[in-house]
Design a protein that fits this description.
alpha+beta, 4 strands, binds iron/sulfur cluster, Alpha-Beta Plaits, single chain, two-stranded antiparallel sheet
């Protein structure tokens, strides 16, 4: 199953928990700031996402959704 995290960057508070929890290390913090004045989470290599859902589960503000799509 392929997929990727969709991040509501405007609501991200920059806690970095999703960065720490991702087993394939594809979550990182942006170089730029959102309207809250924090660097927000970004997925830097969607191709490697296993759709494990860990980032979405750990996010305290539930601003990540992991979408899955069929291969092919
Ligand atoms: S779903 Fe899993 S592999 Fe994909 S970005 Fe989130 S923590 Fe990483
Ligand atoms: S866990 Fe949620 S609030 Fe924290 S950096 Fe990741 S997306 Fe932002």
């Amino acid at each position: 199953m392929r997929g990727k995290p969709i991040i509501d960057t405007a609501k991200c508070k920059g806690c970095e928990l999703c960065v720490d929890v991702c087993p394939v290390n594809i979550m990182a913090m942006s170089d730029t700031f959102n309207k809250q004045g924090v660097q927000y989470a970004v997925c830097i290599d969607e191709e490697k996402c296993t759709t494990c859902g860990a980032c979405a589960i750990i996010c305290p503000d539930m601003v990540i959704k992991v979408i899955k799509y069929e291969q092919g």
